Amino acid sequence: MRFALIGALLAAASTPAHARVSQRGIDALEAALNAQDSATAVLTARCASGAITATPVRGEDALPAPDLNDTLSMAETDEPGYRHVRLSCGGVVLSQAHNWYVPARLTPEMNAALATTDTPFGKVAAPLLFQRQRLNTQRGAAPGCPTDTVLSQRALLRLPDGRPLALVVECYTPAAAAQ
């Protein structure tokens, strides 16, 4: 009996995270993300406490796409902002997000909040009424995502006038799909 339990635990540990999470949970997460302009709003709705925190990740930055300035419609002299965070609910990590954004399209207060608080980008920028244009969705880890990622999305956040605000790569954990 003990050996069977140890064998089951070892098998579970060696099974990819996306295989351990139910397909239904991943489908529900993907549907919720596709129906909403803000991934932060989706995670907030899935969080029992309703409070999502964004903890900066240091030393694991992703390289921006080579065409980032074109993607964000930035002048060559503009510098994009970058934020890499773990989004958590009650200490449980639901996702990691890489976010390249145009600081000049945010208010000074929004830029300060992104630089000094644990408030997620989606909540900070929500007053701008951005819309989410999904560029790519895949099951499992996209480049720049941790290996336990069950769902990855790449999206462009656009202001109401169509100008790009941010390019995001989001990496959802098994916990996000289990909520």
Report on this model:
This protein has 179 residues and is α+β, with helices and mostly antiparallel strands. It has 8 helices and 6 strands, in the order ααααβαββααβββα. Residues 1-15 have low confidence and may be disordered.
Summarize the structure.
Keywords: Signal. With 179 residues, the chain is α+β, with helices and mostly antiparallel strands. Helices cover 34% and strands 28% of the residues.
Shape: globular
Strand order of the largest sheet: 1-2-3-6-5-4
- Work out the number of β strands: 6
CATH class: Alpha Beta
- Rg: 17 Å
Q: Structural class, from secondary structure content? A: alpha+beta
User: What is the end-to-end distance?
Assistant: 32 Å
And the CATH topology? Chorismate lyase
Largest sheet: 6 strands, antiparallel
> What share of residues is helical?
25-40%
Number of helices: 8
The CATH architecture comes to 3-Layer(aba) Sandwich
Question: Mean pLDDT, nearest integer?
Answer: 88
Task: Tell me the CATH superfamily.
Answer: Chorismate lyase-like
Q: What are the low-pLDDT stretches, counting only 5+ consecutive residues below 50? A: 1-15
Question: SSE order in H/E notation?
Answer: HHHHEHEEHHEEEH
What share of residues are in beta strands? 25-35%
Number of domain units = 1
Protein name: Chorismate lyase
Signal peptide: 1-19
Keywords: Signal
InterPro entries: Chorismate_lyase_/UTRA_dom_sf (IPR028978)
